[in-house]
Write a structure and sequence with these properties.
The protein is built from 19 helices and 21 strands. The protein has 572 residues and is of the alpha/beta class. It has 2 domains: 306 residues, P-loop containing nucleotide triphosphate hydrolases (Rossmann fold), CATH 3.40.50.300; 233 residues, Nucleotidyltransferase, domain 5.
Length: 572
Amino acid sequence: MLSPTEYVSHNLHLLECYLTGITACTIIANKYERLAVERFIHFKSRFRYSESGLIRVLKFFSLLNCDVNNKIDQYQLIDWQVFILANLYGLYKDETNRLFDSAYLEVAKKNAKSFFASAISIYEAIADNEINAHVVQIANSVEQSRICLDYTKGMIQNSPAVVDRFRINRNVLYNDAPSGVNKIEIKAPKANSLNGYRCSTIILDEFAFAKDFSVRQNLLTGMIQRRNKLEFIITTASGNKLTSPAYQIRQTATNVLEGVIENDSMFTVIFTLDDPDRERAPGEHWRKSNPSLGHSVTLEQLTNEYYKATLIPDDLLAFNIYHLNLWQEQGSNIWLEDELIKNLMKDNRRIPTGSSVFCTMDLAANSDIVSMGLLHYDEDKKEFLAKTISILPDGSKNKIRPGSIDLRKWKKTGSNLLKQGKEDGYIIFGQGKVLDENLVMDVLKAINSNYRIVGGVGFDPWNSLILADRIERELGIRTNQIPQTIKTLNFPLRLLETAVLQERIHFEQSPVLRWMFSNCNLITDSNGNRKVSKKNSEAVDGVITIIGCFHQFFINYGFQNSVEDFKRIFLS
């Protein structure tokens, strides 16, 4: 462990080598990192540079310990992090006021940015001489806020020099200073719970996944009177380029670095690839997106993840976003093109009578489509057969929403509930204006007579528990709940997607199912998990049931959401 003096000397040397390496092009860097370094060097001469301000921060950081590789050790800064500290705490516009009051950092995951944010939070709450300092760290979800809290609490509890200065109460860490009470608060993004906050520092973690600017705007309003306030946005790219508020700030940040607009109060550095088409393959150039390469993450680790990801289209997309920090335009393209789905229906292959099937049902609102999905897996061919059955109340509302297509053109007329086709129709219309549960029971009875249901009928528990109980009592068919959460549905969605792209699945012909596939949008969380959402409130129920069938499938086979499971299913 280095002494504070040794720690300062080591990191000042790191900074000097970093600046020299970037300017001399001996360190691999993208254009935005180079522009950020050029801007810093220019600002050192244009404004007041206080090395003592940087030294003060470094001395404090030398007192912090964290868990690295299952070992508690002194917190070690990486050269690019020292560079950020030099900007935020070394540049002043006058004797007492720092130059930057906002910062935008964009970097790939696994580059130690969460530890960095925790260390800055602790410094701002104790050592920045702000009376009644209030540091608020906003995560992108409740789950992520717990992770951020654990990082910060762990760093405090493992650091003897600071642990006695804090008392911890759930998600708030208090520091009782002589002049008042300082605190660090870590919260999930709920704008209405932040009114009245008078923060000295806000850290917006993974802002690419924020729904809008409301949380940020509420917090910034309360910071106006603070001296040396700091707004620090730390994020990785996402698949929501067209809607993410972070991407709007990113555009401002790149304009600042390129000199298109002038904003001396904003610091920014962005780590990404210069030429994604040429630089996606593994190599040392990945340091452009991963400045901690060789420290918190290695090229070998990233390369291994890359080659695993190439097996699965969804994983490769996630790798490009999260490990190469490349933004995607989610929503600008259809999830699965109609031509793909049409091609997988052209042979009209049917599930043989007596086959084992996985079965799910999606019970929507009383006046909307109800769908049932069936999925058969041929273990010898390693391929799937799927079909959906749709039921709709025969009321005046024969459209999902005003202006939608008229569903009566697909009305079923044949008496065989499981048969569908041009002559028979594709949607079973019930009696009355609300869901006919007896008809649902009749369809399930027919399914149970024609096939062997494996693992019971899966269903969304929302508004379905009473009918599920009836199915078990009257039909003797076991039911099991499938929570409609993004974590639950992510893996089965990927199974369906991969099966479609590899042509390992065939669907019974159905214009209804093709229409439902065209209605699908995907939503993505910060961990790359995805689930289907509706586009323009149109029906996607049939697709949801097939995804549910894949959930039943992988539960039955004991899969664990891993690459090895994909190999077992899709690789001969």
